[in-house]
Amino acid sequence: MDIIFMLIFIIVVSGIFLHFVPIGLWISALAADVHVGIFTLIGMRMRRVPPSKIVMPLIKANKAGLNVNVNQLEAHYLAGGNVDKVVDALIASQRAEIGLPFERAAAIDLAGRDVLEAVQMSVNPKVIETPVVSAVAKNGIELRIKARVTVRANIDRLVGGAGEPTVIARVGEGIVTTVGSAEKHTDVLESPDEISKVVLGKGLDAGTAFEILSIDIADVDVGRNIGAQLQTDQAEADKRIAQAKAEERRAMAVAQEQEMKAYTQEMEAKVVEAQAEVPHAMATALKEGKLGVMDYYNMMNVQSDTEMRNAISHAGKTEKIRGSESKII
């Protein structure tokens, strides 16, 4: 019973020892001529750093001839970086003869960029295809242009430099400006390479993480006649404004006509009212002796004579009209 208890105790102690003391990694490091102390490995365990995440990249860096140490790799891991990818990037930059110190590679990795991809892009440039850019020449014709931008990563500006969306936006802006300065869209169609030369000469890669090597126009299509469409829209707008002003004038004329009708009706009512007062005034004048009977009869004779003259005048006009009509027949 004591022997069994002793064996269990030895196994537990051995398991705890092997957990905190990675003998296999220590032997692998010695075989690769990488000097990592056993207490260093134990300290990694105590700091919750997986020794394999440090030792294996250290062996790889040592075989590649890189000057890195355990403390640098462990500090980068504790900062949240990818140690293995940083070491691979350092090896790739060394093979490509690109000056990339460990501190800069670690900073690029901690900045959230893929440092290995950046080194690979420095050796093998990347082609970025822009979306279709709509630009309008001075004659109002729209051109739809698609470009391919060849870029190379700029290691020195990877930290703090703008990314691909900024490059695409700047290239699109340069295309719009170049086409917009052309007198006719046919000038652009005749020599689309002029767009590449003008846009490339604007220094669009300033402040970005890339270096633009070339801008090639992949496709140019003729779009809508924007100028004619704008003129049509302007004419339609002018027409609507004129119609609105005409309607306003018509409404004002109708209002004035209604006002004149109301005024005429009011005046006619006053005349009728005044005429209704005439007999009463004449009766009052007769009673008061201000108007004699002969004066009254003279006034009536004058009125009758006037009505007769008006009737004769209207009759004469009617006869003339009838005579002219009979002559025409």
Structural description of this entry:
With 329 residues, the protein is an alpha+beta fold. 67% of the residues lie in helices and 11% in strands. The protein has 13 helices and four strands. Strands 1, 2, 3 and 4 form a four-stranded antiparallel sheet that branches. The mean pLDDT is 79.
Quick gist of this model?
With 329 residues, this protein is of the alpha+beta class. The protein has helices at residues 2-20, 23-31, 38-46, 51-64, 70-78, 83-95, 102-110, 115-123, 164-180, 185-190, 193-200, 226-288, 293-328, and strands spanning 126-129, 133-136, 141-153, 210-225. Helices cover 67% and strands 11% of the residues.
Give a count of the beta strands, DSSP E runs of length 2 or more: 4
Order of helices and strands: HHHHHHHHEEEHHHEHH
Determine the mean pLDDT: 79
Q: Which regions contain 5 or more consecutive residues with pLDDT less than 50?
A: none
Intertermini distance: 153 Å
Number of helices: 13
Structural class: alpha+beta
Largest sheet: 4 strands, antiparallel
Rg over CA atoms, rounded to whole Å, is: 52 Å
Strand residue content: 5-15%
Oligomer: single chain
Which of globular, elongated, flat, extended, rod-shaped describes the shape? Answer: elongated
Q: What descriptors fit this protein?
A:
11% strand; 4-stranded antiparallel beta sheet
